Amino acid sequence: MSMHRRRLLSYASAATLLASTGLASRARAAAGEKFTVLLDWFVNPDHAPLFVAKYIGAFDRAGLDVDLIAPTDPDLPPRLLAAGKVDAALSYQTELYLLADQGLPVIRTGTLINKPLNTLTALSGRGIKTLADFKGKKIGYSVAGVEEALISAMLGSVGLKLTDVTLVNVNFAVVTALMSHEVDGVIGTYRTFEDIQLKQAGLDPIIFIPEDHGVPPSDELIIMSNKAGVSNPALPKFLSAVKEGANYLVKNVDPMWDKFASDQPSLNNKLNEASWHALPDSFAQDPFYLDKTRYTTYRDFMLKAGLIKKALPLDSYAVELKA
Fold first, then answer.
1. Cys-Cys link to 114, which of 2, 94, 251, 284 (CB 3.0-4.6 A)?
2. What three-state secondary structure class fits 93?
3. Interior angle at CA 128, CA 125 and CA 133, nearest 5
C-alpha cells in the first residue's frame, strides 16, 4: 500500500528476514532464471500487472522464474535491495528521493502505477466543501515529513498555512479517524481503495486531489533495482513481461479478477474487487518509460519542502532501460 504505512527497521532486521525466508538463494530454477521481486507491502490489487504476467505465462516466455514476495514490513524492500539480496523491489517515487538522499544504492528502472493515488479526504456534512474550509479544522496524517509537505502545498494553493489547521497523528487509522469524527479530514487515503471503502460504507467522501492543488504529479508505484544490477539482462525481460501483463489486464479485467480472487482467497471481497476494477487506467502501459520532467520537478518539490538535502542528478536515481 502507501509509502505512509511504514515502520523503520535496521539492516540487521532485513538480514534476519532474508535468512528466514530463504531469499538469499540465487540459484537458477529449472523453469527459468530465478528473479526475486519484493512487493512494497502485502499482496493487493495494486500489483495486478505482476500477477497477470504470471497467470498468462509472460514470465515463462521471458525465460524467468519470478518470485513475488510480500515483506513482513514495508521498510524492508528497499533495504534488502540495497544490500543486493533481491533482484527488484517495489517502492514509490516519493520515497525514491529519500532513499537516494540517504545514499542507498537503489535506482528506479520501471514504473507499475504512473498516476498518483493519494488524496486528502473529508466527509460531507462536516462543513467542508472546499480546501479553504479546512481553516481551523483537524487533519489526520500518519507520518511526519512527506504528508506534512503535501498538506502544506495543498493549503498554500488556497492561501492557507499549516498553522491554520491542527495536524493529528492518527497512527495509520485514517478511515477510522475520519469516520469517528476524531478529525475533519485525512491525508493518505487512496482514490482506488479507502475512498471506495468510505463509499461502500454509505458515506459521501469529499475528495481533494493533491496534483490539482499545488502538488506536482508523481508515479505512485515504481520498480527499483540495485545500481549494480541495472545491467542484469533479466531486468528488461522482466519489465517486458510486466508490460505484457498490464496490457492484457486492460482488455481482460473481469477474468483476471476471477483468477486473482481464486489465487488470493483472503482478498476476495467487494472492496478489493472494486479496487481491482478502478485501477487499470492507472497502470503504466509501458513500464520502461521515464518521465524525466516529472522526476526532476518532484525532486525540486522535495528539496523546497526540506525533505531532501540536495538535488541529485536524475541519472543517479532513475534510468530508462531499453526493452
1. 284
2. helix
3. 155
